[in-house]
Design a protein that fits this description.
The chain is of the alpha+beta class. It has 2 domains: 1-77, no CATH class; 96-228, no CATH class. It is built from 3 helices and 8 strands, in the order E-E-H-H-E-H-E-E-E-E-E. Helix 2 packs antiparallel against helix 3. Residues 14-19 have low confidence and may be disordered.
């Protein structure tokens, strides 16, 4: 912690550069607790600053063992399980969204590559969760629909006979928008309530309302993509 301290003309000489808060002790015979606070943005190195502050304090206490100006012990309070739990939820949400985006792109590519039969991909009801996937693959469209349905159910990765390769409650829909445009949608079960998807995105609508928190479609997650089939001349 060498170097010159910055000078701020607007501060009085007796004022400290770092704001300090003093916690009065419960017993008169005890020394007050003095706290220093720093305003720092996310990712700017708060943990490093805390570690270096503790190091600085302990080094000075080592050089002056009898001094009460520097501590000989430090209590670190952190959210711990709260932050850990939140991070785990975010990781699962991110994984499910990544899987959904891959399946969304997969069907969009299948429709674009089979452009002459694009209308045949339109689904009467969602594929995936809660159904037996079609087994027919006599045509290219049937094979694509079968593969997409199986992928939505997580057949791409299995363990102990269980499908693990997709989102929770994955469903997929293809809707005709007119003008040779098709809306491809992936829906799945989120880990908690957020704002509901737009009312116009109906794939899996109200299929994820369970429990006291997931009502009003607030636990349904969706990603969409519009496939446009141009007329070639």
């Amino acid at each position: 912690m060498k170097g010159e301290r910055p000078i701020f003309p607007e501060l009085k000489e007796e004022e400290e550069f770092f704001p300090r808060l003093v916690d009065p002790p419960a017993e008169a015979g005890l020394l007050p607790l003095r706290r220093m606070g720093c305003k720092m943005a996310t990712g700017s190195g708060k943990t490093l600053v805390m570690a270096m502050t503790i190091t600085w304090a302990f080094v000075n206490r080592g050089r002056q063992p009898a001094s009460v100006a520097f501590p000989n012990a430090v209590l670190i309070c952190a959210p711990n399980l709260t932050v850990k739990g939140r991070l785990q939820v975010l990781q699962i949400e991110s994984y499910q969204r990544a899987q959904a985006l891959m399946l969304l792109q997969d069907m969009s590519n299948r429709i674009a590559l089979n452009r002459n039969n694009a209308a045949a991909y339109v689904t009467a009801s969602p594929l995936g969760e809660g159904m037996v996937c079609p087994g027919t693959n006599a045509t290219r469209v049937q094979a694509d629909v079968r593969d997409w349905c199986n992928a939505l159910q997580g057949a791409g990765e299995t363990m102990g006979g269980s499908n693990l390769g997709a989102m929770v409650g994955g469903r997929g829909c293809v809707e005709a928008l007119g003008g040779d445009q098709y809306l491809v949608t992936i829906a799945w079960q989120g880990m908690g309530p957020v704002s509901a998807p737009p009312a116009g995105v109906t794939c899996g609508q109200n299929e994820y309302d369970g429990g006291t928190n997931c009502v009003g479609d607030v636990c349904r997650r969706v990603v969409t993509e519009v496939v446009r089939i141009s007329t070639l001349t």
